[in-house]
Amino acid sequence: MNETFVRAFNTRRLDNLLALYEADATLCVDGMSSHTGTAQIAAVLGDFLQMPGTLTGRNAFCLRHGDVALLRADWTLTGPDGTTTLAGSSAEIVRRQADGTWLYIVDHAVGASLERVG
C-alpha cells in the first residue's frame, strides 16, 4: 500500500488517491483530528496535493490477519530544491476487497511518529 500511495500521490491526481480508500474510511493527518468519508478525505488530500515536491516511502511492516492488515510506513516529502518539506511514520489499517485489492479503512499519516505519552 505504501508504494501504491506514493505512486498515486506523485501523479498529482486526487482521484488516484481517493481510489485507495473505502467510502467510509477515516484519515488523520495531524495526530488530532480525523476525517471520515470520501468528501472529507478528498478535502484533506486535496490540500496535501497542493504541497510541491515528491513523496517517497518505505514500508516498515505489514501484520496481516485474514482480510485485514496493520501497516506502518516511513515517508518523506522532498521539495523541488531537494530539502525535506515533511516527514513522518504512518499507522494504517487496510482491508482486502472482493477483487483482491487492499483499501485503507484507517490511515493515520503520522500515527507512528507521535511522541510517547506517560
Q: Calculate the mean pLDDT score and round it.
A: 95
The CATH architecture name reads Roll
Low-confidence stretches: none
Q: DSSP helix count? A: 3
How are strands sequenced across the largest beta sheet? 2-1-6-5-4-3
H/E element sequence: HHEEHEEEE
Number of individual domains: 1
What would CATH call the class?
Alpha Beta
- Computed Rg: 14 Å
Sum this structure up briefly.
It is built from 3 helices and 6 strands, in the order ααββαββββ. With 118 residues, the protein is an alpha+beta fold. It has one domain (1-108): Roll (Nuclear Transport Factor 2, Chain: A).
Labels describing this entry:
118 residues, alpha+beta, Nuclear Transport Factor 2, Chain: A, six-stranded mixed β-sheet, 3 helices, 6 strands, globular
Describe this structure in words.
By secondary structure, the protein is α+β, with helices and mostly antiparallel strands. It has a single domain (1-108), classed as Nuclear Transport Factor 2, Chain: A (Roll), CATH 3.10.450.50. It is 23% helix and 46% strand. The protein is built from 3 helices and 6 strands, in the order ααββαββββ. Strands 2-1-6-5-4-3 form a 6-stranded mixed beta sheet. β1 (21-28) and β2 (34-36) form a beta hairpin. The longest helix has 12 residues, at 38-49. The radius of gyration is 14 Å and the shape is globular. The model has no long low-confidence stretch (mean pLDDT 95). Residues 3-102 form the SnoaL-like domain. It comes from Phreatobacter stygius. InterPro entries: NTF2-like_dom_sf, SnoaL-like. This is DUF4440 domain-containing protein.
